Amino acid sequence: MKNRGFFVYLCRLSFAMLLLVGFGGRPGHAAPATLLFEDHFTGGIPGWTAVQPSGGNYIDGPMLWEYDVLSDAFSEQSNLYTDSATFSVTRIASMLINESVAPSNFTYTARLTAGDDDGFGLIWGFQNQDTFYRAIFGRQSRTGWPFTGWAVDRLNNGQITDLYGAGTSNFVPSFVNRNAIPFDVMVRVTNNLLTLTVIDDPDLAPASYDLVTDQPLPSSLAGKVGFVSWGQSGASPRSFRIQNPALSPTPLTGDPGTILTNWSFLITPRGDGTTNHPTGVEPLWAQGLSANGDRGRMIENSDWTADNVAAATTNFPAPSAVAGNVNWSNYVYTARFISSDNDGFGMLLRFLNETNFYRIAFRNQNSTSGIKRGISIQKNVDLVFDEIFASTSFIPPTAVPIEVNASITGNRLQVIIVSNPDSVAAQGFYFGPFDIAGGTVNNGKIGVFSWAQYNEATQTTSDAGTEVDFVKVQEVAGEGLIVTSPFGTANPPTGLNDFPASTVVTASVDSVVMDAPGVRRVAVGWEGFGSVPASGSSNQVSFTLSTLSLLAWKWRTEYLMTTAVSSGGQVTATVGPWVPQGTNVT
Q: Measuring CA to CA, which residue among 268, 443, 291 is closest to residue 352?
């Protein structure tokens, strides 16, 4: 294994980062790799917008609304709340709002299931972050909002009015939700009269509660509908689930069921063919919305854990998502991960079925049970698990992206990892080549997995567990070279290039690029992995390509310095020299 920082900070260098890989073509000639599959997980939750009202004294978080495709459920798990854990004076809370505008007479229904005991519920008549109606449900013992039991309140330009339920003088306690027991909620408004009905445990032991019946509301109800969450996280189901929302006569906008349709989901078994599935915990695969809009990632943050024991370092079961074509054989698979926890995640290669695949696993936590710390590579052939490689020379960081590039050609596997790839502090790691012996898997899909992932106590940047920023699969036939350069014209071109093995590659890039008037970029060298020499200071390098490889062209930004000298009433202007960015000029 080789490890070195492959970017150098020099007068605020603006440079190219780069990466990877393995392919074929005629001797001496590069061909672009064939794109087989790509997913960037964009689109968030179709039809819905996350709202974190301004002005709140927010604690915990950050806000992350999710739609889980396995349970067809909405949730918000970040524990985001305002003011204090005892109660909220301002009643400011995060919301998820649908784009449809309900008319003044409407019916809005949903099934709610609480895992945590704080507050969550339904929104209607939404005009903006300060004007809406809300029905909220909680079971933690409280004397303030979000109360114990249920409550209906109205915010009008930020002014709070308690209408029905807890918080009103004539409130008689009735319905209180129970952990993991679903309840159906119906909000019906006719001629400005509200009816709020709950049916508890509707499938097994239905009990109906007429919480509000034809009671007046202070103003028009026309507006959008949605959900609210305050202080919800943890337990099982994690935080809460809101399922089957429906609005009539105007239907809800968007279909969240259209996300992640390229993927299939399963739990890969251990060596005895079972998953040792923990009771009451289900994997959660989602897309989400944060305060900045579309999260742009696939998320798994159920904290699903099984076989966290010493005997399961190789044959652990894991919630997995797979995509692609089972007939794929030789390819380069690239995925970018961001982990909010210190447990296990990684990628699947040549996934033929749940009993035959290769797996690259990562774990930050220093543990001798379950997935090994660092990087480990396993093969599973007919439920016989073997370790191909394990090392702690790379420890995956939390809350920092890593880009994993795996090349599988024949029975040879090579891996390049770039930690913090968009930063000047980026580091590269090369593992392999590994010639897989004994039983092999010759073709299959790609995938990702997540194990015991939710959040890690020493960092509070996210509760998103395992996040996958993008995946990309390209077909290769020989050895591959990825070239990246933010400026100029590179030869071979930027991207993944396919070369016959043992090709002598002479790579180059423009020496100077005029980027704008008075601004130029100067090539100052390269850094590389695999067959590419470690570093150099010119704009050309030659090497024999025999492994998965990385070439990163580096650049320096320079500015044309213009001076003006005045003497005896005469002004003389001078142009030049070119000065590197960050230079102190006197």
A: 443
Overall size of the chain counted in residues? 586
C-beta of residue 86 within 8 angstroms of C-beta of residue 144: yes
* Cβ-contact 374, 366 below 8 angstroms: no
Distance CA(405)–CA(545), nearest Å, equals 17
Q: What is the mean pLDDT of residues 512-525?
A: 93
Residue 394 tokens, joined = 């790379």
Query: What are 117-142's pLDDT values in tens digits?
Result: 999 999 999 999 999 999 999 999 99
Handedness of CA 221, 224, 229, 234 (dihedral sign): positive
3-class SS of residue 224: strand
Check if the beta carbon of residue 81 is closer than 8 Å to that of residue 230. yes
Question: What average pLDDT does the chain have?
Answer: 90
Beta-bridge partners for 387: 378
Q: How many CB atoms lie within 10 A of CB 72?
A: 12
pTM of the model: 0.88
DSSP annotation of 344: E
Confidence of residue 252 (pLDDT cuts 50, 70, 90): very high
Distance of CA 99 to the CA centre of its chain: 24
Q: Angle at the Cα of 578 (from 576 to 583), degrees rounded to 5?
A: 120
Dihedral over alpha carbons 44, 45, 47, 51 (to 10 degrees): -80
The per-residue pLDDT for range 39-60, each reduced to its tens digit, is 999 999 999 999 999 999 999 9
More confident residue, 29 or 500: 500
Q: What is the DSSP string of 173-186?
A: ------BT--EEEE
Return the C-alpha torsion angle 383, 386, 392, 397, nearest 10: -20
Q: Are 362 and 420 in contact (CB under 8 A)?
A: no
Residue 583 has pLDDT above 80, yes or no: yes
SS3 for 470-530 is EEEEEECCCEEEEEECCCCCEECCCEEEEECCCEEEEEEECCEEEEECCEEEEEEEEEEEC
Half-sphere exposure of 251 (CA within 13 A, CB side): 5
Closest by CA position to 481, among listed 36, 37, 38, 29: 29
In DSSP notation, 250-272 reads SPPS--GGGTTTT-EEEEE--TT
Residue 35 pLDDT > 80, yes or no? yes
Q: Please tell me which residue, 251 or 480, carries the higher pLDDT value.
A: 251
